[in-house]
Amino acid sequence: MSKFMYFDFRCTGCEHKFSDLVKPDVQETPCPECGEEAKRMISAPRLSNDMESRENHWVKQNRQKTAQDKKFYADHGVDKKHHSYGS
Fold this sequence. Notes:
4 strands; alpha+beta
């Protein structure tokens, strides 16, 4: 079983810096701001057994995903409530 660890990443597109919980061999991940490829920065990994910090991480990730979805729908003129996928 592979453990997950926090690493720092920097987006190659918008230069956004963020931390993400990934497997140690992961070197790239999508940027939560623009979706471009983000590369892992050289930094010390952070381990967390603190339930509150893990919960805060996922709350933040959900907020970022919601903001990303809203921007996508606004940019593409799609009303999410009335859009059905696959039709």
